[in-house]
Amino acid sequence: MKNENKIQYIYGIADNALILGQRLSELCGHGPNLETDIALTNMALDLLGQTRSYYQYVAELSGEGKTEDDIAFLRTERQYKNVLLVEQPNKHFGYVITRQFLFDIFHLLLLEKLQNSEDERLAAIAKKGIKEVSYHQRFSSDWIKRLGDGTKESHQKVQEAVDDLWTFTDELFHSTEEDQIALDHKIGVDTIELKEKYYQKVKEILEEATLSIPETKWFQKGGKQGIHSEHMGYLLSDLQYMQRTYPNMKW
Amino acid sequence: MTIKLEQHIDPTLVPILEEISDPEIPVLSIMDMGVVRSAILEDNIAKITITPTYSGCPAMDVIGEDITKAFAKENIEAKVSLVLSPAWTTDWITSRGRKALEAYGIAAPLDEEADKEALLGGKKIVKCPQCGSVNTKMISQFGSTACKALFQCNDCLEPFDYFKCLK
Ligand SMILES: [Zn+2]
């Protein structure tokens, strides 16, 4: 498998972790209470840690003297390959939890497959990530149940979030050209294979949370091709501000 | 990236490594924490391999620098590298490390099964490091750092950290 193809494949996984990590870190100090604030920023940290492992690998593969920072901070919007779901804004706590829940279920299924990748490095990153993402999934699933089966207001808010974010779930299973190449080389994961399990698991938890499953057949897509929603530009300007303003600055 | 289960640690380097503490839990040396995976001396260069507890553990950069500094004091150049596999587990915390945790006020990790019962089933088995009571409750699955959960003792009412089991 050509390095360039592998790099693009890794972006498809790593950029989800970066962008969701960035979204969660925006909440640092703004959580509804101390415990959830700490939980959300802990999860942000896990995701950024995973991102670093992927980007360090990409930096080595690219062989152009690139660093993980260049990859995180100096790409243009179209070069980020994250799904639309993870870039959606932090509207309210129920929305944050729903976005997290819809991603966590997918993320864990993906890593459980990726740990068998014939690429040793990706397998190791996945194995490490599984332990962390299991906690994330537990946290977001618990909160979905608590909010869904909570007060009238919490139920209504989280139901609206589910209805809204549902349209972004189908993209998780779209296969790009790089996905196919990676799969052919036994490096990548067949995301289509995860789809049935994903919806089954999601529905199970939503039902337990007394939430109804949206019936929409219309889904959004584009992130995987680098065509993002209107929120992405704002997110990136926040994310990239320091490196763009003070090139090569370090902590 | 090589996958080695056993640690290769040159015993002559151990005293230096034992002097370096985990920046987030200063009572614990990086040896007791189990994050040093190998340490060998070649041509007066110490090659040290460490592994993170969690992917995003911000302590790793600091530990790397601390190792370099500690060896420089002994006029030894150190090269530190990071491995992810095999992934760190709380089983690698030494028994001396577990005692140090408890003395510091952090409940040491239970085994996998008991950990699940404590974190998910709400079973009262995590022992308060202050008074020893098991009449405790979980406040939050996530504590002050990624590796810990927040608990409170129902008897002495002190809040405390519980080091989560990681396998
Ligand atoms: Zn107590």
TrEMBL record, chain A:
PANTHER family: 1,2-PHENYLACETYL-COA EPOXIDASE, SUBUNIT C (PTHR30458:SF0), PHENYLACETIC ACID DEGRADATION PROTEIN PAA (PTHR30458). GO terms for cellular component: cytosol. This is Phenylacetate-CoA oxygenase subunit PaaI. NCBIfam families: PA_CoA_Oxy3 (TIGR02158). InterPro entries: Aromatic_CoA_ox/epox, Ferritin-like, Ferritin-like_SF, PaaA_PaaC, PaaC. It comes from Aquimarina muelleri. It holds the Pfam family PaaA_PaaC. GO terms for biological process: phenylacetate catabolic process.
From TrEMBL, chain B:
It comes from the Bacteria. InterPro entries: Fe-S_Maturation_MIP18 (IPR052339), FSCA_dom_sf (IPR034904), MIP18-like (IPR002744), PaaD-like (IPR011883), Zn_ribbon_PaaD (IPR056572). Residues 17-71 form the MIP18 family-like domain. SUPFAM superfamilies: Fe-S cluster assembly (FSCA) domain-like. This is Phenylacetate-CoA oxygenase subunit PaaJ. Signal peptide: none annotated. It holds the Pfam family Zn_ribbon_PaaD. Residues 114-164 form the PaaD zinc beta ribbon domain. The gene is paaD.
